[in-house]
Amino acid sequence: MHRLWTARRTVTAALAATLVGTIAAACGSSGTTATSGASAIASSAKKGLTVYYIPKDTQNPYEVIADQGGQTALKELGGKVVVSSGTADTAAAQIPSIQAAIQAHASAIVIAGNDPSALCPSLNQAAAAGIKIVAFDSDVNCGTSPSHLFINQANTQQIGTSEVDLLAKEIGSKGQIAILSAAASATNQNAWIVYMKQELKKYPNMKLVTTVYGNDDPATSLTVLQGLLSAYPNLRGIISPTTVGISTAAQYLDTHKSLLTQLTLTGLGLPSQMKTYVHDGTVKEFELWNPNNLGYLAGYAAAGLASGTTSLTTGSTFKGGKLGTYTVLAPAGATGPSVVLGPPTVFDVSNIDQFKF
Amino acid sequence: MSTAVITPTPTARPRRLESLLRARELGIALAIIVVFGLTTLNNHAFAHAASIQQLLTGAALIALLGVGETMVIVTRNVDLSVGSVVGLSAYIVGDLFKHHHQMPVVAGFAVAIGLGAAIGAINGLVTTVARVPSLVVTLAMLYIVRGIDGVIVNGKTIDPASIPQAFITFGYRSLVGIPWLAIIVAVVVAAAGYAMRSFRWGRDLYAIGSNPDAAALAGIPSGRRVFTAFLVSGALAGLAGALFLAIHAQVDVTGGIGYELSVIAAVVVGGVAIFGGAALGALLLNTINQALVATKISSFWNEAIAGALLLAAIAFDRWLSLRVARNLRSAEGAHRDL
Amino acid sequence: MTSDVATRTPGSRRDSVDGSRGRAALRGLLRWETALAGVLIATLIFGSSTSSTFLSSTNLFYIGLNMGEIAIMALPLTLIIITGEIDLSVASMLGLSGTVMGVLFSHGWPVWLAMVAALVVGALGGTLNGVLVAKLGLPSIAVTIGTLTLFRGIAEILLAPRTITGFPPSLTKIGVAPVPGTQVAYSAAIFLILAVVAGVVLHAAPLGRALVAIGLQREAAQFAGIRVNRIKFWLFVLSGVMCAFAGILFTLKNASVSYDAGTGLELNVVAIVLFGGVSIFGGRGTVVGVVLSVAIVGCLQQALTQRNVQPEVQNIILGVLLLISVVIPNGGEAIRRIRDRARRRA
Predict the structure, then answer these.
(1) d(CA A278, CA A281)
(2) What is the DSSP letter of A258?
(3) CB distance from C158 to chain A under 8 Å?
């Protein structure tokens, strides 16, 4: 944990300094206004704010932890969180929650989108009603209708590249690999996979043979995994950037240890689920970040936006409670203004027991 | 309404009939071998022992559920609540193990089966005593049980560390090369098949489904029989839940979601005439699923192929029962010249 | 079904279609619809006790928006269930037609043409169901589970894992704006118009009486000259087209489509129809009941969400409502039967 803090603080500080410096240099005489705006930490957030957290569904363990982080954040700020969503991972299940937020005159919505586009009309209505929109975990691609802030758990590109680098290190940068993903339409999965494929170009001897979709369901993940193993008997590595996928695959390898002589598994997993497998050697290392921190930061961002102390302007900063100061990054591609929580943490046998999530 | 999932075939059994009915099960077995063969030609790794074990274990849960569902469907009812029961029982057993590590493995199975049987009993009671159509009852129970599961689970998961190794062994260990899962399913199928043929109540189920009026006139206690069918279906769903926990060593609220349609598909494809049907149907569907990945056909084709297969099976089923009916009529005709 | 045994005894309501029985049945129906109206009022009171804005036009707009497509799918399903069949492929057809429309639109087709193509796909899917059930006589529950899988599978092949967006704003505004001059969502307005048509057909037209006759006693209806198979066939085609239409509305409302649009909604639609008093055995049901059921479920879900009741608990409530909706009508008979049996044994 300690390493994580120091690294992130350094990165954030460096980023902030660079941006401030760039803006100052670029703006010349009007630079003072920009820099003072960028570095000023305005008065604290309003009290009594209500923030609606709308996760993908109300039972996803990863998001439950994130929602708890949000509740901590709003409690510190004297506000409150309402968690509302459906049971199915569909946009249609989230729309009534957005409507409830509008009806309840919520200050802000923090949403993990089940679909990149289908939520935009409803979110736009919420924005028109004065509700600030923050996305986390899974972004929504709505352009400027509405404008929103995306709390990225880690730099999208970095997640993709580090996953490939992690695997390459373990398999000697050589061999066939496959990806075991979640739902075929999940925004975050597809975004990471794009960068994974890019990074693979650096390893000419590693070949991505296929991507299979487990739909974040253990039974489906197991079936596609078994099919994968039958289809590619020479498979050397599997990246599963989803907590359900990696834990299902780990359980299978744990009970079929002979496969481990030539197969390596890595991906994104929850330390609490992966502890057993790391200790018995099934999985050597994997990554994630603290979902609690993600929800916590999203809570502060939402409160800041609703209070007017945070803005979507590139380079502006805000205080993320005990996590420190964060800077808004420029829009890039389909992603709008975003904030990065920090680099992913690599878990292995040396540090996995330190984490409670 | 003809809510019968399978068009029931007449119950009289001249020799030719038996062979026609067997043709169904042989047809499925043949289809499995054909799919397996073609896939192996394309990808030799498919025929390894590990792959075959995977085929058996992958189909195990649906096959198990198929046994109970067959009993229910034979009586012209349907049980849509099985998926929810699997999820609830898996989580409750997991939770028990998490808080009582010393609980014996047998107790885990007993709790699962008991819970499933209790829900099956409710289904059976409401269907037979309140005379509510089973489609409606089990659809309602699907919602209710899944909802109760959600309230109990409340965003938590059961992690592998909570479950005793002895329990998990059933999920992956083999006995002389045959996975325990396959053995358990085979035993259940054999026992159920034997019971359906040899015991009065088993044959009664077919009679009730084939001609409810005649069955009532013949003095068959339909209510009690149908109740038993739902009880068994629920108990097996509970058992499947325990095995789900053993296989995955983790469970959250998504356990068993969508299983009901897979089970009915397996029953439809495999047929109900002879008791191996649903298990074979489950095996065929699972083999196709894995074959598609193994032959590197995009997994996006799975559902469409499964749907086409279902329709073909239903049509074939109908053709078969028409043949049977025609045979019976000619048999009757022969005897009518008195 | 085991219940067939009991209801075939003499004196049962199901036995004949003649006037007196019909009137008795009508009285029975009206009792259910009245009960539903009462439940709706109770739901509205419950809702407004939760939030002062529950009865506001915006909220009613939302309810209509959320329920519109489900409600449209419920109408042909009502007619199909009354004739004694069922169609579980409704939600998959919604997804497939939306997918077809999206894929064609993304290939440069004019959006109107893409919509027509989606409707054609709906007709084709309905024809498949109709041929298998009406012409070949296969059990509709099994067939439509097959087509449910097949349609969803085709949508997956066509579109997974992409999402199509970029539909013209003049059309996607149905997702954010009500019909001008009112606060009714477009899809809800269309549903109400279609419901009136369905109601007239079912209750006032000869075709409606034919549907009820088919559901009550199929053989008798056939002997009476009703073209049972032809009617059932066209009902399935109608269902396909209307679900395709619902798919178009769903796509425009969300301003996007992916292959899994509407997954799992079929059970919701069936539950709503059954809760509306339509008997799963066939031969009994009204459009008014289904409209009330749609309103109740829509308002109740909205009220519960605004009260922040967990969705899992909402599912339990839906399930219990469904159970009650069939136990109560049958309950009286059941108690009588138990009493008779006890008396006989004494």
Answers:
(1) 5
(2) G
(3) no
The whole-number pLDDT of residue C115 equals: 96
Please give the radius of gyration of chain A, using alpha carbons only, rounded to the nearest integer: 21
Cα A222 from Cα A251, distance rounded (Å): 9
> What is the token pair recorded at B204?
């009664």
pLDDT digits (tens, 9 = 90+) for A9-62: 444 444 444 434 333 333 333 333 334 433 344 446 788 899 999 999 898 888
Average pLDDT, chain A: 84
Give the type of residue at A327: T
Rounded-to-integer distance, Cα A319 and Cα B151, Å? 36
Lowest mean per-residue pLDDT among A289-303, B156-170, C239-253: B156-170
pLDDT band at C267 (very low <50, low <70, confident <90, very high): confident
Measure CA B199 to chain center.
20
Q: Give C164's DSSP letter.
A: E
CA pair distance B278, B265, nearest whole angstrom: 9
> Do residues A235 and A229 lie in contact, with contact meaning Cβ atoms separated by under 8 Å?
yes
CA proximity to A277, closest of B249, C18, C37: B249
Q: How confident is the model at residue C346 (pLDDT cuts 50, 70, 90)?
A: low
DSSP labels, B7-22: PPPPS---HHHHHHHH
Q: Which residue type sits at C202?
A: L
Q: In the prediction, which pLDDT does A181 show?
A: 93
Give me the residue from C142, C149, C274 closest to B5, CB to CB: C142
The helix/strand/coil state of A179 is strand
Instruction: Give Cβ neighbours of residue B275 (< 8 Å, ≥ 6 apart).
Output: B67, B70, B189, B192, B193, B196, B197
**Cα→Cα distances A213→A229, A288, B261, Å:** 14, 20, 20
> CA C266, CA A340: separation in Å to the nearest integer?
40
Q: Tell me how far apart the alpha carbons of residues B247 and B264 are, in angstroms, rounded to a whole number.
A: 22
Is residue B253 classed as helix, strand or coil in its secondary structure? coil
CA angle B159, B165, B171 (to 5 degrees): 85
Task: Mark which residues 129-158 of B lie under 8 Å from A by CB.
Answer: 146, 150, 153-157
Name the residue among A324, A292, A345, A344 with its Cα closest to residue A157: A344
Chain B interface, mutation test: which of A56, A68, A210, A226, most B Cβ atoms within 10 Å?
A226
Residue A205 neighbours by CB distance under 10 Å: 10
Residue C46 pLDDT > 80: yes
What's the rounded Cα separation, in Å, for the pair C234 and C226?
14
Chain A residue nearest residue B292, CA to CA: A227
Is the minimum CB–CB distance between B48 and chain A shorter than 8 Å? yes
CA gap C159, C184 in Å, rounded? 32
pLDDT at residue B335 in the model: 58
Please report the domains of chain B, with CATH numbers, ordered by start residue.
Answer: 15-331 (1.10.3470)
Cα distances from C43 to residues C48, C167, C184, C191, in angstroms, run 9, 36, 19, 21
Q: What pLDDT sits at residue B18?
A: 64
**Residue B238 CB neighbours (<10 A):** 31
CB A292 within 8 A of CB A320: no
What does the pLDDT average to over B210-231? 91
Q: Does C58 touch chain A (CB under 8 A)?
A: yes
Handedness of CA C29, C31, C34, C40 (dihedral sign): negative
Is the CB of residue C312 less than 8 Å away from at least one CB of chain B? yes
Domains and CATH numbers, chain C: 33-328 (1.10.3470)
Whole-number Å distance between alpha carbons of C134 and C156: 28
Cα distances (Å, whole numbers) of residue C318 to A62, A154, A187, C312: 28, 40, 31, 10
Concatenating the DSSP letter of every residue in A309-320 gives S---STT-EEE-
Q: Which of A125-139, B137-151, B243-257 has the lowest mean pLDDT?
A: B243-257
Q: Which residue has the tokens 């970095």?
A: A158
